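Justification of resources, computational component.

The compute hours requested in this renewal are based largely on the per-chain cost of generating structure records like the one below. Each record pairs the submitted sequence with a full structure-token output. That output is archived, and it is also reused by downstream analysis tasks.
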Amino acid sequence: MTTEAVIDAIGISKSYQRGKPVLNDVSISLKRGEMVALIGASGSGKSTLIRSLAGLIPIDWSRNGRDTAGHITVLGQPIQRGGRISCNRNLRARIGVIFQQFNLVPRLSLLTNVCFGLLGRLPLMRGTAGRFSDDDKLVAMQALSRVGIAEHALRRASDLSGGQQQRAAIARSLVQGAELLIADEPIASLDPASSRRVMDLIADMNRNDGLTVLVSLHQVEYAMKYCPRTIALKDGKVAYDGPSSALTPAFLNNIYGAESEELFLPNFGGAPEPSHGPHWSDPQGVSNGNGHWSEPPAVVMPAASTVAMTRPHTKAGRLTA
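The structure output for this chain reads:
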């Protein structure tokens, strides 16, 4: 892992109503290749921070009437400064964003939805018209194969499960060629099996593609399993930034009080023993009563996960989207 900062946010604040800051002087930095969790109780400012870092909403110009606006730099380029978003098309193409709502076009096929990830790299007129070449479609098919849903390529997005739709959103980020993935609670609406598969895919992209990941999570268990580092927000401020292994129930109770209960899965009985790591045993995905975590066995990644995301040298067969 290099020391290059992929995200560098300094002193950012955001208020939707005067005098009620959602973010208050937040500063964070992510190095290239990191996979970092963002946690916090409801209303802590996670989604606002995610959207600010992605350049989707402007941060405040000043705090307390002083010209002390923060700024955000992503991949070495300023994305926000002085309350203004300055994200150009090329920079936008290098940032993948995944939301809880999937953001697929329901009436279009998965293949077409994944091809939309290429829009930032296509000529403007061809992208606007949605004209994708056979090579474009083959790249999209490789991405769908990698996330394990290639057999559904020609089905309408609305006909698939939430987990399948979220995997299609990940495939879209793959064809986009993003260097940074920002995910806003991507597993919040998924069942446990689908949640693990989605997190396995994101971790695989981080590990094998060198993708830098910032993922907002509502359950601490997933942060501890998948992310070596966690940033915890409370009332719009950074309450903790450090190793995920420190996130025991007692530690989080000191930060959040009674609100810490919503950060754990139901019936969670304690943090994993640090000398042995997490122990997964209970098929119901709850504590086994001995202070260990428990959940069903991890989902096995499809063999297609090793497919290289490169354009072919030969002409691809025609695929109908």
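Confidence is low (pLDDT under 50) at residues 268-321. The chain has one domain: 31-47+89-266+277-306.
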